[in-house]
Design goal:
Order of helices and strands: HEEEEEHEEEEHEEEH
CATH superfamily of one domain: Nucleoside Triphosphate Pyrophosphohydrolase
Distance between the termini: 37 Å
Strand content: 25-35%
Radius of gyration: 16 Å
CATH topology of one domain: Nucleoside Triphosphate Pyrophosphohydrolase
Shape: globular
CATH class of one domain: Alpha Beta
Helix content: 10-25%
Length: 220
């Protein structure tokens, strides 16, 4: 799997600002009609693939409840670009070390997914990195409530992919979701995982018109 991921990511040219993906992919009618706090602000996340011998996993975090944006949500380690960051990769590696204590020397960069626009206005560069096992997490309790791993095969199985909806700013918004045990992976994180799924499998994610999204659970 490691060699396949490296080869696939090396051959992928990430979509940039003109062809970016994002929260509006399933909600084109909302584009330009919602208030966004950080329009166009650059950010990066690391998509950490832990290269375990038995099964490659994806390392995710759950954000603390008091954060101003995306509080309590499952997320990749990452954040907004700072003045001292050299590039998107530097931002992702810095944020990962700050949030969960994994140093950049343990991460082999495989490539990047397509630029992703969040409904809050961030333009997020998802950087895919292979993480060497044996690390010890050092979680920043201010930003991260917990960190956990999900088997990559689980995330790539279309049987586990959902489209859910909720009412947001007075309008119904649809989003990808991947429930995993007690964890609910949704929104931007699930959207980026759909991009990874498409790249690694060659299949398109579930379409809104292919499911009865109105019948799906509405998250409060």
């Amino acid at each position: 799997m490691r060699d396949f991921i490296l080869k696939t990511m090396a051959g992928h040219e990430p979509a940039g600002i003109d062809m970016r993906r994002g929260d509006f992919d399933l909600n084109p009618s909302l584009k330009g009609k919602v208030t966004r706090k950080y329009t166009g602000r650059a950010a990066s996340v690391l998509v950490p693939l832990v290269d375990r011998a038995d099964d490659m996993t994806v390392l995710l975090t759950r954000r603390t409840e008091h954060l101003p944006d995306h509080a309590g949500q499952v997320a990749f380690p990452g954040g907004a670009r700072e003045a001292g960051d050299k590039n998107a990769i530097d931002t992702a590696l810095r944020e990962t070390e700050e949030e969960i204590g994994i140093g950049r020397e343990l991460v082999h960069i495989a490539g990047a997914l397509d630029l992703y626009e969040t409904s809050t206005g961030y333009h997020v560069a998802p950087i895919v990195g292979l993480v060497t096992p044996g690390f010890e997490l050092a979680i920043d309790p201010h930003e991260v409530a917990e960190a956990f791993e999900v088997p990559l095969n689980f995330l790539l199985d279309p049987e586990n992919h959902r489209i859910h909806s909720r009412v947001w700013l007075g309008r119904r918004r649809y989003f990808y979701a991947i429930p995993y045990g007690e964890h609910y992976i949704w929104g931007a994180t699930a959207g980026m995982l759909m991009n990874l799924y498409e790249l690694l499998t060659g299949n398109k994610p579930v379409r809104l018109d292919a499911v009865n999204a109105e019948a799906e659970a509405v998250r409060p």
